[in-house]
């Protein structure tokens, strides 16, 4: 499958990463090579194979729905670049 | 004799005899770091003097009492910089301890505040992707320490650490352990809690020990293992006493040698050293046999889809809102929030992080999901089945840890694909979830260490350690020290 500058630019937008023009060009070339290598997987017929997303036979880990101590909000927000009281401050979203 | 040269179990004997105090050990280690770290750069912030935290255990009953433990920069330590060696997490001080850190403290261990160097977010095989610059291999200062836990491995090798913690997503404990001539163990997926490990690829990540010998690796593994309600993927099975399991006879142990690991691409010098190690293991009474893991060649491409897909999702949280760096959008720009995200992430992430986030985002994006992500998950099934089949008839698998010894700093950094292929022998263990250890088994002509990898069934760390210990005790590779 072909990947070019336009696709990489679009994916960078989806991933919310600003790229400089030079960076975009370099990354596009590298990703093209990497994907070409990854295309080796197409040599294997996987039509009848189930996917493995998780290696352990564990599912639906449940616990009792009991209140317990957790990190206080203020403590959890100590690392925020900008905060006000118990809130994170972000740029204005709605005009 | 200097205290910093000793292992945790040797120091414990000295402490118990009253010959030394915990403070003596810390002072010895501090001096050693001040003396050699300007060359090795295992602790990248270089804010020596290095402070250690007081141990918090009650009484002197902890099995790590007074033993300093070095910690990779992606494992949260309460109140002390944990930045994954990334600009985007600059200044991050976790408000809590990772479960492994809590367990080490409860066992009396002393956590070093200064964290060890790593590839940014554990993305790499050489520690060159650290925002602080590379760590140098103590055995050859112009060569890489391996990665991504290169700081932890180099620190142990250079006697700048007694034992250390690393994390392993595709070989990030074992490959640097091999390059630096130390022992490194990736536990079974689910053996050790990931709570407080800053996530790279959640279905592959495990925290594990790096140590000067197998006994210390067993000791640290024993301390950090076990179920944790804060990590629902940690498994609720009993933790064996890994230290007690050492020293068992390995006569009759069935060892598989996968032929796919000895083909083109393996450095002939490494091949020779590993074959000598296999002869040694045979002479100890193990039965070896050639087997096939037919999907070995597909492990790297599968990994670079699954790991990057999971990483692209995990790293979405670094957006300039909750922690770390924020780069403001220009005044008056429309969509200021999205602009802020983009600038923060564009400026905050290094090149390899961007490459992986883009690859992972692509593999998960509409139109490509089935062709890449789903395909990789299916081939992962085949790789796991390869291992299941071999482990029906064998107790352990032995391979080289890496196809080459440590390469030169700068040699592969401009060719990501070449760098990715240096993980070819370690990735499968993560995809299959099985435990694996790397231990020293010799040197190249240039004097660089070679690692031997042993893999076992899920939760069979005892067997793996037993075989590794038997081999180690019949050789003296682990006693060699680099000249610094």
Write the layout of secondary structure elements.
The complex is a heterodimer of chains A (about 100) and B (about 475).
Chain A: H1 5-14, H2 21-38, H3 73-76, E1 83-84, E2 87-88
Antiparallel strand pairs in A: 1-2
Chain B: H1 8-16, H2 22-40, E1 68-71, H3 99-106, E2 110-111, E3 136-137, E4 140-144, H4 150-157, E5 163-168, H5 174-180, E6 183-186, E7 206-211, H6 214-224, E8 254-258, H7 268-283, E9 287-291, H8 299-314, H9 336-348, H10 351-364, H11 369-393, E10 396-400, H12 416-421, H13 427-432, E11 436-443, E12 449-456, H14 461-473
Parallel strand pairs in B: 1-2, 1-5, 8-9, 8-10
Antiparallel strand pairs in B: 3-4, 5-7, 6-7, 6-11, 10-12, 11-12
Features:
heterodimer; A: 95 residues; mainly alpha; Histone, subunit A; 4% strand; flat; B: 484 residues; alpha/beta; 10-stranded mixed beta sheet; two-stranded antiparallel ribbon; 14 helices
Please describe what this structure looks like:
The complex is a heterodimer of chains A (about 100) and B (about 475). Chain A has about 100 residues and is mainly alpha-helical. Chain A has a domain at about 1-45: Histone, subunit A (Orthogonal Bundle). Helix content of chain A is about 35%, strand content about 5%. Chain A is built from three helices and two strands; from the N terminus they run αααββ. In chain A, strands 1-2 form a two-stranded antiparallel sheet. In chain A, a hairpin with a 2-residue loop joins strand 1 and strand 2 (about 85-90). The longest helix of chain A is centred in the first third of the chain and has 18 residues, at about 20-40. Chain A is flat. The two termini of chain A are about 40 Å apart. The model of chain A has no long low-confidence stretch (mean pLDDT about 90). Chain B is an alpha/beta fold and about 475 residues long. Chain B has a single domain (about 1-484), classed as Alpha-Beta Complex (Amidase signature (AS) enzymes). Chain B has helices spanning about 10-15, 20-40, 100-105, 150-155, 175-180, 215-225, 270-285, 300-315, 335-350, 350-365, 370-395, 415-420, 425-430, 460-475; strands at about 70, 110, 135, 140-145, 165-170, 185, 205-210, 255-260, 285-290, 395-400, 435-445, 450-455. In chain B, the strands form two sheets. Chain B has a ten-stranded mixed sheet, with helices on both faces. In chain B, strands 3-4 form a two-stranded antiparallel sheet. The longest helix of chain B is centred in the C-terminal third of the chain and has 25 residues, at about 370-395. The two termini of chain B are about 15 Å apart. The interface between A and B is large, with 52 and 71 residues.
């Amino acid at each position: 499958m072909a990947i070019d500058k336009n696709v990489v630019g679009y994916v960078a937008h989806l991933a919310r990463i600003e790229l400089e023009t030079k960076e975009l060009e370099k990354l596009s070339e590298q990703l093209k090579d990497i994907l070409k290598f990854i295309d080796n997987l197409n040599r294997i017929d996987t039509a009848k194979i189930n996917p493995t997303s998780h290696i352990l036979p564990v599912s639906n880990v449940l616990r009792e729905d009991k209140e317990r101590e957790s990190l206080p909000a203020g403590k959890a927000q100590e690392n925020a670049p900008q905060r006000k009281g118990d809130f994170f401050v972000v740029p204005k979203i709605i005009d | 004799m200097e205290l910093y040269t000793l292992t945790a179990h040797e120091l414990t004997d000295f402490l118990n005899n009253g010959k030394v105090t915990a403070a003596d050990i810390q002072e010895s280690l501090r001096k050693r770091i001040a003396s050699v770290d300007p060359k090795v750069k295992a602790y990248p912030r270089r804010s020596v003097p290095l402070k250690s935290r007081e141990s918090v255990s009650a009484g002197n009953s902890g099995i790590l009492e007074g033993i300093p433990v070095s910690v990779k920069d992606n494992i949260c330590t309460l109140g002390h910089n944990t930045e994954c060696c990334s600009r985007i997490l600059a200044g991050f001080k976790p408000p809590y301890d990772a479960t492994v850190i809590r367990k080490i403290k409860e066992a009396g261990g002393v956590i070093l505040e200064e964290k060890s160097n790593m590839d940014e977010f554990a993305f790499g095989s050489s520690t060159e992707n650290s925002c602080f610059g590379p760590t140098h291999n103590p055995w050859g200062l112009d060569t890489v320490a391996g990665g991504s836990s290169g700081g932890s491995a180099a620190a142990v090798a250079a006697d700048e650490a007694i034992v250390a913690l690393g994390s392993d997503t595709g070989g990030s404990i074992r490959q640097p352990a091999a390059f630096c001539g130390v022992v490194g163990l990736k536990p079974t997926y689910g053996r050790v809690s990931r709570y407080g490990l800053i996530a790279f690829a959640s279905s592959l990540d495990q925290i594990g020990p790096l140590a000067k010998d197998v006994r210390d690796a067993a000791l640290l593994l024993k301390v950090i293992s076990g179920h944790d309600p804060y990590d629902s993927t940690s498994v609720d099975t009993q933790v064996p006493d890994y230290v007690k399991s050492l020293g068992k006879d390995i006569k009759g142990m069935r060892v598989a040698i996968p032929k796919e690991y000895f083909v083109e691409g393996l450095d002939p010098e490494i091949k020779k050293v590993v074959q000598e190690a296999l002869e040694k293991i045979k002479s100890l009474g193990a039965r070896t046999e050639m087997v096939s893991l037919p999907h070995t060649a597909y492990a790297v491409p599968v990994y670079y889809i699954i790991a990057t897909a999971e990483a692209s999702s995990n790293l979405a949280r670094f957006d300039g809102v909750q922690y770390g760096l924020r780069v403001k959008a220009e005044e008056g720009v429309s969509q200021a929030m999205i602009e802020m995200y983009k600038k923060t992430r564009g400026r905050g992430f290094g090149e390899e992080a961007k490459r992986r986030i883009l690859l992972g985002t692509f593999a998960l994006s509409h139109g490509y999901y089935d062709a890449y992500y789903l395909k990789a998950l299916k081939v992962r099934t085949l790789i796991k089945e390869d291992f299941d089949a071999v482990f029906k008839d064998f107790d352990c698998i032995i391979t080289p840890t890496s196809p080459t010894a440590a390469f030169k700093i700068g040699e592969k950094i401009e060719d990501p694909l070449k760098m990715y292929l240096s993980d070819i022998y370690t990735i499968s263990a993560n995809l299959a979830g099985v435990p694996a250890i790397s231990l020293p088994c010799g040197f190249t002509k240039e004097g660089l260490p070679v690692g031997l990898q042993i893999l076992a069934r899920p939760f069979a760390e005892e067997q793996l350690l037993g075989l590794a210990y038997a081999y180690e005790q019949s050789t003296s590779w682990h006693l060699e020290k680099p000249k610094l």
